[in-house]
Amino acid sequence: EVLPNYSKFIHLQWHNNLFVFHHGDRIKHEQILQTVIKNLDNEWSQSKNRYCHLGHIHHHTAREVGSMHFEHFGSLTSTDQWHSDSGYGAERSMTAIVYHKDSGEDSRVKIKVSQ
């Protein structure tokens, strides 16, 4: 199933979980939080577990802002010439996360991609 992606904000509510997806460019976590509360007020109030998954920076970071978990994930793609010349070179990895319909994140596995 392909979710509608006419906006940089894509969301999915699943039982007691709200998932928000955004590329992560040109916006701060606090701005995302305010936008989600404003535009997804029904989904927000119906969900105990709230997650925002982002990319853009190609490094893993995680933090909580209010009652939403923000997480940036690494990239699977190899470094291109521009990024290499600029000194970038993040670890290539993929993370599989298992969520419980009521209690949210249950477990995860991180898989590194060999260079």
Task: Give a quick rundown of the structure.
With 115 residues, the protein is of the alpha/beta class. The protein contains 3 helices and 7 strands; from the N terminus they run ββααβββαββ.
**Helix segment tally:** 3
> Which whole number gives the mean pLDDT?
93
What is the rounded distance between the termini?
31 Å
Q: How much β-strand is present in the residues?
A: 35-45%
Element order: H for helix, E for strand: EEHHEEEHEE
Strand runs, count? 7
Biggest sheet: strand arrangement = 1-2-3-5-4
The biggest sheet amounts to: 5 strands, mixed
Query: Considering DSSP H and I runs of 4 or more, what fraction of the residues is helical?
Result: 10-25%
Question: Any overview of this molecule?
Answer:
This protein is of the alpha/beta class and 115 residues long. It has helices at 29-39, 41-46, 81-85; strands at 10-14, 17-22, 49-54, 61-65, 68-72, 93-100, 104-112. Strand 4 and strand 5 (68-72) form a beta hairpin. The protein is globular and about 45 Å long. It is built from 3 helices and 7 strands. 19% of the residues lie in helices and 38% in strands.
Features:
single chain; 115 residues; alpha/beta; 5-stranded mixed β-sheet; two-stranded antiparallel ribbon; 7 strands; 19% helix; globular
Draw up the topology in text:
Elements: E1 10-14, E2 17-22, H1 29-39, H2 41-46, E3 49-54, E4 61-65, E5 68-72, H3 81-85, E6 93-100, E7 104-112
